[in-house]
Predict the structure.
Amino acid sequence: MRSALVIGTGLIGTSVALALSARGVRVHLEDRDPEQVRTAAALGAGTEAPPDGPVDLAVVSVPPALTAPVLADAVRREAARGYLDVASVKGRPRRELADLGCDTTRYLGSHPMAGRERSGPLAATAELFEGRPWVLTPTAGTDTEVLNLALELVALCRAVPVVMDADAHDRAVALVSHTPQLLSSLVAARLAEAGEAAVRLCGQGIRDVTRIAASDPAMWVDILSANPGPVADVLAEVAADLDETVRALRALESADEHKRAGGAAGIEAVLRRGNAGRARVPGKHGAAPAAYETVAVLISDRPGELARIFADAGRAGVNVEDVRIEHATGQQAGLVQLMVQPAVAPVLTAALRERGWSIRQ
Ligand SMILES: NC(=O)c1ccc[n+]([C@@H]2O[C@H](COP(=O)([O-])OP(=O)(O)OC[C@H]3O[C@@H](n4cnc5c(N)ncnc54)[C@H](O)[C@@H]3O)[C@@H](O)[C@H]2O)c1
Ligand SMILES: O=C(O)C(=O)C[C@]1(C(=O)O)C=C[C@@H](O)C=C1
């Protein structure tokens, strides 16, 4: 792929543009908001200049409800050899495109399973898609050249292609993305009116569960409006589990020992099913869940501390597979959890200790 046109230079569009530009593709940027294009261009995502003629691939990265009309417009003005969208739902945009009378042979619906709770080009990174699944939903009518261009795009973004039927995709993301978004919002909503005494105790658990509750409501109303049935089905099952959990907790309050034992068994069953579900969440690169060992290091809140710790890990020849940071409330310090292969954890611990780092067990 030599050239691309990214239409919609927000979080996802600019991240795609940054990844393509970094790998030598000439990227043209377009957005209905000129400020977004200017920002994306200033970040090095591509050029504000329109292309001279059709580019190889147009990537439409606008909110789901606008995806079909924006795609149809791009096809009408013959902006590219192939057209791809990245909307979080796949059934409705395809049907809307067909309703608009658009030739869908040169269109491929796609969805990178990577994102953030922040919108706009300033939240974008070239690495956003690395090792993440990127769903492609070709049909029997999809032009092979367009499928190949899409596979090349996924490879350039260093993501992992996953081919799926559009409606099967929408049922899957109802479970793994759309319901989690609502549940995160529901838990965070309990905090909106909570007393300060409780809120100040927020630790890592609630931070993990509520990160995506900071997402843009307008975008999510749009996503959920295009996938209401499958999400309602999953949420109804969660609601039944919640009812049972409340009953089990009430039983734990009972004076009757037998009822208390039943309540404890009910709660344990929920927690064990949670363990089993969590164990199925794939690790990096879509591979089987990785059992990393964590080396926890105390750092002070000073510029350059993280860079120094990564440099020391690199010097010890250790590959850091994943990283998490826990901030200590009211202190200028934090705990960095470096996830590494179990075999190298002792090597890293010894090397960091030698360089003066404080390791927490
Ligand atoms: N945010 C995520 O985590 C995530 C992950 C995967 C896929 N997606 C999908 O990616 C798409 C973009 O999401 P985002 O998070 O980048 O949103 P965003 O709000 O950061 O960016 C959307 C951009 O589209 C522009 N836009 C709106 N209407 C337009 C139009 N008619 N023509 C041209 N530009 C227009 C906006 O000005 C904005 O810059 C959505 O379809 C979303 O479902 C989002
Ligand atoms: O990690 C996040 O912040 C996301 O919201 C990413 C996430 C997801 O649910 O995994 C959200 C919606 C997108 O359609 C794809 C990815």
